[in-house]
Design goal:
The complex is a heterodimer of chains A (371) and B (599).
Chain A: E1 2-6, H1 7-17, E2 32-38, E3 41-47, E4 51-58, E5 60-63, E6 65-70, H2 71-79, E7 86-91, E8 96-100, E9 105-109, E10 126-130, H3 132-142, E11 157-162, E12 166-172, E13 176-183, E14 193-198, H4 199-205, E15 212-216, E16 220-225, E17 228-233, E18 252-257, H5 258-269, E19 278-283, E20 287-294, E21 299-306, E22 308-309, E23 314-319, H6 320-328, E24 339-344, E25 351-355, E26 362-366, E27 369-370
Antiparallel strand pairs in A: 1-5, 1-7, 2-3, 2-6, 3-4, 4-17, 7-8, 8-9, 10-15, 11-12, 11-14, 12-13, 13-26, 15-16, 16-17, 18-22, 18-24, 19-20, 19-23, 20-21, 24-25, 25-26
Chain B: H1 11-22, H2 26-39, E1 44-50, E2 56-61, H3 68-74, H4 86-89, H5 101-108, E3 110-116, E4 123-128, E5 135-139, E6 144-150, H6 157-162, H7 166-183, E7 188-193, E8 196-201, H8 206-214, H9 218-221, E9 222-229, E10 232-239, E11 251-255, E12 258-260, H10 263-271, E13 285-291, E14 296-297, E15 308-309, H11 312-329, H12 340-344, E16 347-350, E17 359-362, E18 368-370, H13 392-404, E19 419-421, E20 425-429, E21 433-438, H14 439-456, E22 461-471, H15 474-489, E23 493-496, E24 501-508, H16 516-530, H17 535-550, H18 560-571, E25 586-590, H19 591-597
Parallel strand pairs in B: 1-7, 11-13
Antiparallel strand pairs in B: 1-2, 2-6, 3-4, 3-6, 4-5, 7-8, 9-10, 10-13, 11-12, 14-15, 16-17, 17-18, 19-20, 20-21, 21-25, 22-24, 23-24
Helix pairs in contact in B: 1-5, 2-7, 7-15, 10-11, 14-17, 14-18, 15-16, 16-17
């Protein structure tokens, strides 16, 4: 195998592949990239057996072949070679990989391509095409709420649910929830397609550079962006009945400015108990007081900001981290003025957080802390 | 005073005293009556208690019933159909045999018995009040026997006064009913608390019955035990280590169908779990022993809880091997130890201080014990120990003061380097020596103090988006009713329905999602272990459970900031050197010691 490749192209490819290279694996072969050259197309594959990423780039091929290259040392070298120019990579029958640059030559030991785990062909699946902005929006605005607790496997991923006209992405850890709905721009989505995608794979979808074709089988999901594809197992669990917990009768509505409330929470939280992260809202018609009090250290803080509130005085407590993450999730694309709308029923029922500009596209829910 | 100093007690008084042996609380009545029902060949036994049995205990069976003549004798002492000669006493296969139960109950409560035999057209009712004449009248009733015991101990105020709260008494009743249900999975057993159905288990296999009664997954968590040797056979199930409890309340032993308590036989089973369970954990098992009745004496205890075997050793070994082989078959217990050196000499000395307060660590179990008088093989350092004597706590306090000393001595631990060793220990230094902190124990201590402190200004309850609902066993439900207030005061919003379902709507903010049920059950067990006591002790017990549950573990990788924070938090504790359960949180290897070792 022998080829010459442009450095910028190679560097971009490696950045997309590295997330599937385990930092330290008990199976050394997984720390390698599978590299195959056919004519002028070079295909890379990386897998940690949870997620597989494959990617093809054009090169000037001299001799076809395949080999396993140690991923991190190869990437470390490529990073040091600057932003422009080309390098020549070759491997012989002894699996020694020779890299030639204009000024240097390097050799490292590779492995025989047959040692790489076989990745079974993707089975028959249901397809959906998602626009780049839509998939990025769904990934960006849900993944923060995914649970990291292994006791509830279903909550460690983002739940995607398609019906003809739209697709809903939901993440929750049992304390807060985020739901994004995207409508089909052209054509329709498949109906009744549901799957839970592990958070790690969703992370990768935040940074895609093109429209995505999503294939979902019983066990796996594949996201294809041109020559780049990400395959992940799906979480084979029943997603919790999240629709039932979204309240429809929250009668007290609060509207605040995102920048003001975030700044207030940030300052007040410095004086909150670092373990319970408890802050309290005291809301009246024209102003909202955010208050913290830590018995352990004897510290406390209060910030008061203007607001609009539809009800007489009301008090509710939160874990400030949950609140902050939810409010931060509202961006200018949701509401140009960055207004945040929160609705309440009682101080122990779920609190709804939506962008001030009325829209169904983004909805978040935070469970309060009892005072 | 009369001249006579000795006189024969009147019958009713003698009966009351004797009754005390058999009938101590409502639970004893339930046990005696249900055993009678089973001896009468009942296929279904229903028990209804009101006010934990103080007001009413009703036992309904579909057994063979009694004839009029039998019924007239039923409440007379030593009247029994179960044995007739002293030879029979050596071959007892029924549960009852002394002819004392009904007589004893009738001496301390109002008793009404209705009974009809299959082939007789009419049934008979007997009503009795303590010390009063008994009348038997014809009555219409179903085949079988119904016994109603009302106003227990109303004529023995002293006894009545010693009964515990309804919740506690009911817990005893439901524990006994659980035992009886496990003893006879082939019978239907029903328990009502007033109008509320506590459980109703249909005839089934022992495995299914265990699943129903102990609320565990019978197909997943139970391992079958079956063994026989020298005329003794044992069959039943042992639980996987994952369902082990903090109390012995999941352990049931039956001998020829009779529930028995035997510390020694329970120990035999527990030893099979060596190395797979902590000392504080107790395996779950339900085991039936079958032994020729002539080889055991069940008549050593009035409640027949204890028994004597003619060859206890054989039974012990049989139980131990049977349990061990069940675990081995399921690959729970490794069959060999790779490191023989470690296996044979597990004890290693840790010289904590320069005095004679050294510690010995058991490398197999991780146990650390003070040296005390124990001697151990090979490499003893005791001979080299300097004579200056400093106690364990003294040294620890010094180290603590060193670590905590302010500007004057500039040994703030946070300023010092910390590192995580073996993904289990945080190593840092004080003026006195190298400090090795057990990260799990240290975090338990930190959480424990934090939980107690936080409690002082009211719990912080994080409401749950998805309420957690689960089933509990009847005895656990009784515990929950008894300790509900205490549990709620820790920040759990818990609700129990009338039967066996518990719903959790909010938890203290440190409880990990998904562990609500296990945490709650652990807390109930530790409250049960604690027994009655001041509220503060109960809170400590609950905080200790929460701390253990939520702490980081050995094997958790910590970032540098987390390591520093843990050291800082530990030494900010009021009692930094031990966990709530008394395990040490850190040890100090003194510089003197290092110096000696390098010479």
């Amino acid at each position: 195998m022998k080829f010459t490749v442009a450095l910028p192209e190679l560097q971009r490819a490696l950045q997309k592949l590295l997330p599937a290279i385990p930092a330290k694996s008990t199976i050394p072969v997984l720390e390698h990239l599978h590299v195959a050259l056919v004519g002028s197309e070079l295909t890379f594959t990386a897998t940690d057996q949870e997620i597989s990423i494959s990617l093809a780039i054009p090169v000037a091929g001299e001799a076809d072949g395949e080999v396993l290259i140690p991923a991190r040392p190869f990437n470390d070298l490529v990073k040091e070679l600057g932003q422009a120019g080309t390098i020549e990579v070759g491997a012989g029958a002894d699996q020694v990989i020779a890299i030639r640059t204009p000024t240097g030559s390097f050799e490292m030991k590779g492995l025989h391509a047959l040692e790489f785990p076989t990745i079974p062909p993707f089975p028959a699946a249901t397809k959906a095409t998602l626009r780049r902005d839509d998939i990025a929006r769904m990934a960006n605005k849900t993944v923060f709420a995914v649970s990291t607790e292994e006791y509830r496997p279903s909550m460690t991923g983002v739940f995607f649910s398609f019906n003809d006209a739209n697709v809903t992405a939901v993440a929750t850890d049992g304390f807060r929830l985020s739901r994004v709905i995207v409508t089909a721009s052209e054509g329709t989505f498949p109906s009744d397609l549901e799957c839970i995608i592990p958070a790690r794979a969703v992370e990768l979808l935040r940074k895609v550079d093109g429209d995505v074709v999503m294939d979902v089988s019983k066990t796996h999901a594949r996201f294809t962006i041109g020559q780049h594809s990400i395959t992940t197992r799906v979480i084979d669990e029943k997603y919790p009945p999240y629709q039932n917990v979204i309240p429809s009768d929250n009668d007290k509505a609060l509207v605040i400015n995102q920048r003001e409330i975030l700044a207030a929470i940030k300052r007040v939280s410095l004086f909150a108990n670092t373990n319970t992260r408890h802050v309290r809202f005291r809301i009246s018609e024209r102003s909202l007081a955010v208050h913290s009090h830590d018995e352990d250290s004897g510290s406390s803080g209060t910030e008061t900001i203007p607001c609009e509130f539809s009800h007489e005085a009301f008090e509710v407590g939160f874990n400030y981290r949950f609140l902050e993450e939810a409010i931060k999730n509202i961006t200018q694309e949701d509401d140009p003025d960055l207004n945040v709308r929160m609705t309440f029923s009682t101080s122990i029922r779920a609190v709804l957080i939506t962008p001030g500009a009325a829209s169904d596209s983004l909805l978040m829910l935070v469970m309060p802390v009892k005072i | 005073m009369t001249d006579a100093t000795i006189h024969i007690l009147p019958d009713h008084l003698a009966n009351q005293i004797a009754a005390g042996e058999v009938v101590q609380r409502p639970e004893s009545v339930v046990k005696e009556l249900v055993e009678n029902a089973i001896d009468a060949g009942a296929t279904s036994v229903t028990v209804v208690v009101k006010q934990a049995g103080k007001q009413l205990i009703q036992v309904i069976d579909d057994g063979i019933g009694m004839s009029k003549a039998d019924l007239e004798l039923a409440t007379i002492r030593h009247a029994t159909s179960k044995i007739s000669s002293s030879d029979d006493l050596h071959a007892i296969r029924t549960l009852g045999f002394r002819g004392e139960a009904l007589a004893s109950v009738a001496a301390v409560a109002d008793v009404e018995i209705r009974t009809r035999r299959t082939n007789e057209a009419t049934g008979w009712t007997l009503s009795s009040r303590p010390g009063q004449h008994i009348g038997v009248t014809a009555t219409a009733c179903d085949v079988g026997t119904q016994v109603m015991v009302r106003n227990l101990f109303y004529n023995v105020p002293a006894r009545r006064k010693f009964l515990k709260s309804d919740l506690t008494e009911f817990r005893h009743v439901s524990e006994t009913m659980q035992k009886l249900a496990l003893a006879r999975p082939d019978r239907r057993v029903v328990l009502y608390d007033g109008n509320v159905l506590v459980f109703d288990v249909k005839p089934s296999s022992l495995q299914e019955r265990i699943g129903d009664i102990l609320a565990i997954d019978a197909t997943q968590d139970l391992l079958s035990v079956d063994a026989e040797e020298g005329g003794v056979s044992v069959h039943g199930y042992v639980g996987r280590p994952s369902v082990a409890r903090q109390q012995r309340n999941g352990q049931y032993l039956f001998l020829n169908g009779r529930p028995i308590a035997s510390r020694s036989l329970a120990h035999a089973v527990t030893t099979a779990y060596e190395h797979v369970l902590d000392r504080q954990q107790h395996p779950v098992f339900v085991l039936h022993l079958t032994v020729d009745p002539s080889r055991v004496d069940v008549n050593v205890h009035p409640q027949k809880h204890e028994v004597k075997f003619d060859d206890e050793r054989t039974v012990y070994l049989l139980m131990q091997q049977a349990a061990a082989s069940a675990l081995q078959k399921a690959n729970v217990v490794p069959t060999f130890t790779a490191d023989l050196g470690l296996a044979q000499r597990p004890l290693q000395s840790l010289n904590m201080t320069s005095g004679d307060g050294g510690m010995i660590v058991n490398r197999l179990t991780g146990e650390i014990t003070p040296v005390g008088g124990r001697s151990f093989g090979g490499g003893s350092w005791q001979g080299q120990a300097p004579s200056q004597s400093q106690t364990f706590t003294g040294a620890v306090r010094n180290a603590f003061e060193d670590l905590m000393a302010g500007a004057g001595r500039s040994v703030d631990p946070v300023q010092r380097e910390v590192l995580q060793a073996g993904v289990a220990y945080i190593v840092t230094a004080s003026d006195e020596g190298i400090v090795v902190i057990d990260q799990q124990a240290a975090h338990e201590r930190v959480l424990f103090e934090r939980l107690l402190a936080r409690h002082a200004d009211g719990p912080v309850e994080q409401t749950l988006m998805f309420a957690v609902t689960f089933r509990v066993a009847a005895d656990q439900m009784a515990l929950l009713r008894e300790h509900g207030e205490a549990i709620r005061s820790m920040g759990f919003d818990v609700e129990a329905d009338e039967a066996v379902t518990v719903t959790v709507r909010a938890v203290p903010s440190d409880v990990h999602a998904g562990t609500e049920e296990a945490t709650l059950l652990d807390m109930l067990r530790s409250l049960a272990d604690l027994g009655p006591g001041p509220a503060e002790r109960r809170r400590e017990a609950m905080a200790a459970v929460l701390a253990v549950r939520q702490s980081i573990r050995r094997g958790d990788r910590l970032g540098h900031n987390e390591q520093q924070q843990l050291v800082r938090d530990l030494f900010a504790c009021a009692v930094p050197h031990v966990t709530a359960k008394g395990r040490p949180t850190y040890i100090i290897v003194q510089y003197d010691e290092l110096l000696r070792r390098f010479q």
